User: Which sequence fits this backbone?
């Protein structure tokens, strides 16, 4: 008998709960500094621009462009074996932060740097949604 490897799934906690609550509604949430208006990703406690700790969660546009990407041809995790080759992109959001996520709705061969994209959430586990990006 074999045990199938489980896909890694994000684990929401108190700090990231606003992000995952938004994701479940199909909305990309980002932290923004109330003092200098800088947007942040990933979750942080202190603004990396002005070092103040007055951050708020706001709805982001969910829009951005592909900054860079790679296509994985090796099995780096056994649960992803059937997905090889799969892609991983770094998307620069219109708000500024760069987010690592997979591209969906496009073949690996058609992904391009500079491609305009829109967030699309995928349910990774019951009630836990993670961002992916699709061309727009
Ligand atoms: Zn700031």
Assistant:
């Amino acid at each position: 008998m074999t045990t199938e490897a489980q896909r890694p799934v994000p684990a929401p906690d108190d700090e990231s709960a606003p992000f995952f609550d938004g994701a479940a509604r199909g909305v990309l949430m980002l932290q923004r500094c109330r003092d200098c208006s800088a947007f942040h990703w990933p979750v942080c406690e202190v603004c990396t621009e002005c070092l103040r700790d007055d951050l708020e969660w706001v709805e982001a546009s969910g829009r951005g462009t592909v900054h860079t990407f790679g296509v994985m041809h090796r099995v780096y995790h056994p649960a992803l074996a059937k997905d090889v080759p799969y892609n991983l992109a770094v998307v620069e959001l219109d708000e500024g932060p760069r987010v690592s996520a997979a591209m969906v709705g496009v073949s690996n061969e058609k992904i391009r740097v500079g491609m305009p994209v829109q967030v699309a959430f995928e349910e990774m586990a019951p009630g836990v949604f993670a961002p992916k990006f699709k061309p727009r």
User: Anything to note?
Assistant: The pocket of zinc ion is lined by residues 33, 35-36, 38, 47, 49-50, 52 (CB under 6 Å).
